[in-house]
Amino acid sequence: MLILYLAGIYVWFWPRGSIPSDISNSNINVASWGTPLATFTGSGCNFDTFFANQNIIFDTTFCGTWAGSVWGSGSCASAASTCDAYVADNPAAFTDAYWLINYVQVWQ
């Protein structure tokens, strides 16, 4: 859950069975959610200007910084010289890689 206020950006996470009931009944009460997982605030940042017209992007990154740097030190190294090479040469290995989005709701 990501909430953008003019005073900052706040992020909460709940496991599937622990989502607060006020979210599912669309009567949110942020004060009841406890401490956010992440808080981005600052007196010099104009959130209303710099965080306007945003998009939600769901991304599956196969060879990010972490995976790319540990590829050669594990059992995957025998499949290809790099993570990028494996992904490029084995598209069928990712046939079942997809996002299953249960629900998205935006509050303003």
Summary, kept brief:
The chain has four helices and three strands, in the order ββαβααα. The chain is of the alpha+beta class.
Overall form = elongated
Mean pLDDT: 82
Derived from helix and strand composition plus strand pairing, the structural class reads alpha+beta
Taking strands numbered 1, 2, ... along the chain, how are they ordered across the largest sheet?
1-2-3
Q: What would you note in describing this structure?
A:
The protein is of the alpha+beta class and 108 residues long. It folds into two domains: 2-50, no CATH class; 57-103, no CATH class. It is 19% helix and 11% strand. It has a three-stranded antiparallel sheet with strand order 1-2-3, with no helix packed on it. Strand 1 and strand 2 (8-11) form a beta hairpin. The longest helix has 7 residues, at 83-89. It starts with a strand and ends in a 19-residue tail after the last helix.
Which descriptors would you attach to this protein?
4 helices, 2 domains, single chain, alpha+beta, 19% helix, three-stranded antiparallel β-sheet, 108 residues
